[in-house]
What does this fold into?
Amino acid sequence: MASGLVLLGKSILIATCAGIAAWLPVALTLFGTDFGASFPLIYLALLGSFAVGLPIALLTLFLAGKAMSDRIGTVMTAANCGGFMLLLVTAVLGGPFGVLYYGVPSWIAANVFGLLGWFLILKPMREAGHV
It folds into this structure.
């Protein structure tokens, strides 16, 4: 029970960091350093991170966690492939605007999920012998 709660807490932390990392470049390009005006966009970034990124990351962990726990390169390859697919979809559906304001932040969030997921979840599970 405790390990499940720890996993949930780390997952929420990772999703929050990914949402902030996706929001920051959009906020800087649209509003410069006026974070007060760009602050409402963080809700959209966090919604995407929790509604799309977190379920995909947890599903990937439970289905391929053992295969991905060997090296960080495997995790980052999967994260970059997922981010690139999101970039392609937004390019087709949204054109240049979609790529800049949805695709690139999605790619950034996917990499944050991969990097923090490796250091906070997969590596400690591997070292403890749980994966």
In short: Residues 72-128 form the longest helix (57 residues). The chain has a mean pLDDT of 91. The radius of gyration is 15 Å.
